[in-house]
Write a structure and sequence with these properties.
The chain folds into 2 domains: 157 residues, Rossmann fold (3-Layer(aba) Sandwich), CATH 3.40.50.1970; 205 residues, Up-down Bundle (Dehydroquinate synthase-like, alpha domain). Helix content is 52%, strand content 13%. α6 runs antiparallel to α7. 53% of the residues are buried.
Length: 368
């Protein structure tokens, strides 16, 4: 099987980088449809629209209503066409960006720009737009014909974002190398439609190295509302390296458990990256990870405020029926648990989730 990788057309990151947007979009279009939430618009929207106008381009605002549903995507498609726009910009969290990506794809692949205002997930660089229903349950992963044309990461904005969102982004990115190495070991065909390249393998390992080295320092800085050079490293890991890594390196049980936890209402308040972090501990159980490596992983997770127990995800009472449904969803034929090894059953995942919870509680008890 051939090797393959996907990546955004251009990635640019830096303190105050939003101010250079006009230069970056010069060849991407003439009239831009700008999607942001009401809160995102209040914080950054007017400034961004003026920057676009100062570059000699036209811009129209489209308000994001909170969830990346088919209805939301179709609404913005109609508004974009009505306004005569020829490119789309999404600025905000992952769901805003996925909405912009879905709009671009459904309109024939018009130019797409993503501008994350948090580093809570690796959506900005990927060619995947995840669609949900009104209850927040994933219903479809829309595959784009290409990744975003431009990704603009302003670390000044991210340094002012909630620390919990950066922690979640570290959790999402932390699974990248562990899932990729399983996929590489098993010669898995990734979303890039080939097996893992040596380049992507190295990028995933670098992602892990940067998180372990700079994660706590970056998070501590954001907690103080301060920009640090460590944040630059963590943003590169959590947005660029993880974004390319999950798509071209592959997913395994960590993300499948995250998807399965949609069946647990008590966990609905947890961020994607927080659930992925618990899913990673579950994957470690399924892999029979050596105790020394697992302890090092748990120590880092503790240092960057990542959940390793069900209670930390909001699951105050463990209901067997609900947790078994989550395990069943994690092993449906379309899920990535099979990339860890063939034949993993829902019973194995259920037992691994309980074991992961026990390991986390024991670790935290010993450390306290």
């Amino acid at each position: 099987m051939s090797v393959a990788m996907k990546a955004p057309g251009r990635y640019v990151q830096g303190f105050g980088e939003r101010k250079n947007l006009g230069k970056s979009i010069r060849k991407l279009g003439e009239k831009f449809y700008f999607i942001a939430s009401p809160g995102g618009y209040r914080r950054n929207g007017e400034e961004m629209m003026q920057i676009i106008r100062d570059a000699g381009k036209e811009v129209v605002f489209g308000e994001f209503h909170g969830e990346t549903t088919k209805e939301e995507v179709f609404l913005h498609m109609e508004e974009l066409k009505k306004a005569g726009c020829d490119a789309v910009i999404g600025m905000g969290g992952g769901k805003v960006l996925d909405t912009a990506k879905a709009v671009a794809e459904n309109l024939g692949g018009i130019p797409c720009v993503t501008m994350p205002t948090v580093a809570s997930n690796d959506s900005p660089c990927s060619g995947v737009a995840v669609l949900y229903n009104e209850q927040g349950v994933v219903i479809k992963a829309l595959m784009m014909r290409r990744n975003p044309d431009l990704v603009v990461v302003d670390t000044e904005i991210i340094s002012r974002s909630p620390a919990r969102q950066l922690s979640a982004g570290i959790g999402d990115a932390l699974a990248t190398w562990y899932e990729q190495r399983a996929c590489e070991r098993n010669h898995v065909k990734t979303m890039a439609r080939g097996t893992v390249t040596e380049t992507v393998s190295a990028m995933c390992r670098l992602c892990n190295d940067l998180l372990l080295r700079y994660g706590k320092e970056a998070l501590d800085g954001v907690k103080r509302g301060q920009y640090t050079e460590a944040l630059e490293k963590v943003c590169e890991a959590a947005i660029l390296l993880s974004g390319i890594g999950f798509e071209s390196g592959g997913l395994a049980a960590a993300h499948a458990v995250n998807d399965g936890l949609a069946q647990e209402p008590q966990a609905h308040g947890a961020y994607h990256g927080e659930k992925v972090a618990f899913g990673l501990v579950t994957q470690c159980v399924l892999e029979h990870m050596e105790e020394k490596e697992l302890h090092a992983l748990l120590s880092f997770m503790r240092d960057v405020d990542l959940p390793m127990t069900l209670e930390q995800l909001g699951v105050r009472e463990i209901h067997e029926e609900t947790l078994r449904r989550a395990a069943e969803m994690a092993v449906v034929p379309t899920q990535s648990t099979r990339n860890l090894r063939e034949g993993i059953t829902a019973e194995e995942v259920y037992e691994a989730m309980l074991r992961a919870d026990q390991i986390g509680r024991t670790f935290l008890g010993k450390e306290s």
